Each structure stands twice: as C-alpha cells, then as structure tokens.
Please model this.
Amino acid sequence: MQGKFWVYIEARDTAVHNINFSCSFRPVHDVVFGVEMTQPMVQRPHFSPTCSGRGTVCTVIAAIHLNEGPGNITLNDHKPDDSRYDQLWGEVKWLQGSGVKILGMLGGAAQGSYERLGGSEEDFEAYYKPLHTVISTNKLDGLDLDVEEKVPLETITRLIARLRSDFGTNFLITMAPVATALIPDPNIPPHLRPPRPRLASGPSPNPLHPTLPHLSGFSYPELECSVYGREIAWYNTQFYCGWGDAGSTQWYDTIISAGWTPSKIVLGVVTHPGNGAGHIPISKLRDVCARLRQKYKDVGGGFGGVMGWEYFNSGDHDEDMVHVAELELDNETVQAGWVAALGRILRTEELPRVQTQAPLLGITPEQIRQMVTKLPEARAPWPEETVGKLVVLGFSQQEAVAALNATEGNVELAAGFLFEQYPQ
Model:
C-alpha cells in the first residue's frame, strides 16, 4: 500500500521550526507533519529521502489568523506576503513540484478567526475573501480547520461549503479536534440518552448524543453525520495535553466503538516531552501503532495513521534516540529517524505480528459508556494539584484543563471562567 506524508508548518519569524506529521495507509494520507517556522523551512537534503523513499510528504502551513478588521490576515504574526516568507513560499513550490500536497491551517490556539467568519453574509465575505486570496495565490491544496474556540456548527458548515464550491472536489479539508470531542459523555443518565436517528444508524457516531467537553463548541458527531461530513478527508485528533492518551489503544478504540471510521481518525501525538503533556516514547508508540494497524486492518479502510506535533525536535530525546539507533535505519537526522521508525511499522506491506483483540463494533450505548468510564487518565499540561483545585469545585478534568489553558494556568481566573460558563 503506497501512501503519502503530510506536514504541518507553523510560521513565526523567517522560516519553519515545528512540524506535525501523520502516517496512514489510505491512498489519501499517510504521514502528517507540523512545523513552526524559525529557520529555513526545508533542509532539502533532509527532506528528500522522506519525499522519495517513504511516500509523498504533504505539508500544512500554520497558522493562518483572521484578525480584527476585514483584510487583517496574518500567517502567525505577519502578512502572508511579507518578505520574511519569500523563502517559505519558494520552498513550498519546490515541494509541490516534487508531488507534495501543501495545506494551510486556519485557527489553532489563537482564537477569533472562526468567530469572525460567523457573522452576516456581508461580514463572512469580508473575512473570507482574504483567506481565499491566500489559498489561491499560494496554490494551496487544502485547508486544515483547527477550531479551538466555541462557535456554532453553522459557522463551520458554511465555511466548508464555500471552500468546496470555490476550490473543487480535489481540495482537501481536514479538521483537528481533541480526542474528547469524538467520545460520548458517559454521564448522561439512561433516560436522557438520545436514541440513534434511523438515518444515522450503522457505522457512524450518534449525532444526538453529547460528547465529553472539548474546545470547539459544536458537535463533531453531528457534523460527521451531516452532508458536510463527507467533505472532511480526515480528523487529526489530538491525544495529548489532557485531551487523550496514546500510550495504549484504549482511547482510539473507544472512538471507533462509538461509530467513527478508523481511516478518518488520525492518532495525534507530541513528538518530544517539551511539546506538551502526554509524550509517548517511540518504542511504545510503535507498539500501539502496530496493534491499531492489526486490529483495524479489515475495518473502515484501516487505521488512519499518526499525526505528530512537531517535527523540528521529534526524536531529539535520549530514550527515543537510543531506540531509533538500535533499529539501524541509516537516517541522516534524529527527526528523520523518528519518522522512519514509525514508517517501518506503518508502511510495510506485511502487517506487524502482534497479539491484539478484535475491535468492538456495533456495541450498545451502555457498553460504550463502560468503555469511556474505564479510559486511562489523560496527562494534563498542568500539575495534578492545580487541576484538582478546579475539579473539587464540581468541574470535570477536561473543563478544568480547558480553563487553565485559556488562563495560562491561573487557577482563580480559571475558576471564574468556569463558573461563568457553567453556572452551578
């Protein structure tokens, strides 16, 4: 099965620094990278082997922001056509000439872009047109929607519909939810659990059942089960920073058991302990990926792959470097070695030989509830004591983590935010 690589690139000063990547076996996507720009975007001797020998690399340029005032669009802190990005766009063309797909990423941790696209038709046009210009001017092959602000579903579906109308069927649209956004809330009492609509029966999430707390404000199951769900190529799902755990298959299994198609769910991880809470050593991650690939080989197109945040320091960690060195991959850099180590698991024709249980499909809502309540705790980016101060007030861990993220760890501000959002 031949596949492709995807790369996320976040721009800061003059070039690329961080990369997210993901590997899968679908013809559409195999490996997703994320990159933050502080140096030249592509060190060509380093990227060439990956491009030619392990599949096509697809790159996502991040992050595009729609700031206050129509036309005030930036690639991180500067205009996309700022001269500091000349090298970036030149190397983008070089990658595209090598068969690499290039996407932009809209949103992320900086909020406001989607809110500004949620106004009247006139307001939408005013903010959308500069985004359209960036996509068309730089000949981007798609857009990754990273919605980390509370907006209604109609805001997202209007954007999806417009992107598809303007750029055609080959334009890639992906999304980046946290893992909890795809998992049913087990605390809904039985008498309040909504039945599955007849039209939504089968291998799909229940669009009426509330999910665990997350960042986006709308229902991803409702989106997936609508006519717009077919427009989403896949979901770069974040299993880190308190929103999930990739140290075993349990979180991923729960999402699939809830009705999601494996080939559309990419396992998002951090590639270095410094990139966020929940880092999984490459040795364990390889084992998890082998089990997921084996378990879902005959289900919904197979395991959707791995997304890693970020590339610039991936594998640059003692434990990972030792493991990669033992594999004798003949890699030029630690980053390339980290990618190749996963590639050896994800991209071989022969499936890894591991013992794994059969996937739990077509199970009852009560069985799903039991799975969710037994999930291993996701490691949060804040000390357990800090999170606990909010949990004892009656909020869930996910709500506490989200509030601490929004207030940079200030417990008092986070508590005030939570009481405002969720009156007791």
Notes: Residues 1-5, 12-30, 37-56 have pLDDT under 50 and may be disordered. DSSP finds 14 helices and ten strands in the chain. Residues 4-376 form a domain with the TIM Barrel fold (CATH 3.20.20.80). The first helix runs from residue 44 to 53.
